[in-house]
Amino acid sequence: MARVSLPAAPDRPAKLVETPFDWTASRPASGPSAIGGGQVRVLGVDPGLTRCGVGVVEGRAGRSLTLVHVEVIRTPADDRLERRLLTLAGALDEAVAEHRPDVVVVERVFAQHNLRTVTGTAQVAGLALVAAARRGLPVELHTPSEVKAAITGSGRADKEQVTAMVTRILRLTEAPRPADAADALALAICQLWRGPGLARLAEAMAASNVRAGRAVRAGGLGR
Fold it and tell me: Per the residue annotation, which of 107, 140, 146, 183 is the catalytic one?
């Protein structure tokens, strides 16, 4: 696994980026709009304060998917919190600007026993949302169970099963490591496969709630 240490800017600490593979040659230089044919480019973020996975996948439901980019951004555990968040904010901004996704998908943070861990994860998830919002990009959130079910067929699959399926789906010659890289790619795949259906379900539920509310109000007026 190659490690690239980027020099620190005067106003930002250095970051360490793990690059399991070099996918630069396979990325279209002119961005997703050049592909056509209904292709969608999704940038997935597996948020974490120590390790933050970023994976970019392109394709559409029912067709083969293509890996565009994957990396894991690390920050030193002994560094100050604000410096770590600044590093991650800059790296996420760069990823969105460079890969120009159509949508950004982030793992939905859920309660854990370790409050410190979940707090850091939530902070990084917020940075990803802001990076997308700055460019007017839509953002989707998926729970780990939703992603596992979409990728493996089971919401209780372990990390090795998810990694194995990501490797198979994207037709990779070796598994993306560490697990944060595979998780980011799994988020992007989940959005490409299930995102449109989940969006339609949400719209249908919202419409149903509106109709129910109108019925209740109409019933009250009729009394």
Answer: 107
